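look at this:
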Amino acid sequence: VDAIINNAAIESGHVKVRYVEVNLRDFINGLIRQFESKSNIKKISLKTSFKNSSAKVCFDEFMITRALSQLISRAMQATEYNGEVKISVDFPKSEKEFFCITIRNSGAGLLNEELSKIEKIFSENGDTADSTVDFPFVLVKSIIGLHHGKISINSRLEKGTDIKCTLPIRQICQ
């Protein structure tokens, strides 16, 4: 219900993005700490990877925390005991004005039907009004969209799932 209400507020334009400068390494490490006790229960290894350890970018810290927390939580749910969830931050040379945060899990992967459903949500013109839609993913898509970003998913059975959030690098926080 919370995700539905928040998404309705975002889609109606009643939510304002409050950009602040964020050190990505500090931000991601802080986010990971929120999941340490849960990861210990399932003996899931939480790992990080940073291509630029001192990178600072601008985004709404509360919103991006909410979106990434949803994705990390889902990744942990999909990961078996003794598995791994990895959060990577990259600055692709092919997209100089963007950075990527990828959440990868070592879970069982998604069946084609499940993958197609999530891909439909994440697509640029995805139908979020469908009552069968997974609302936390709709909320994540809305938050990333408010930041003028994109989100994509890649999954292979028995290999796991990657969800990549591509966000613009903002030099000035406005």
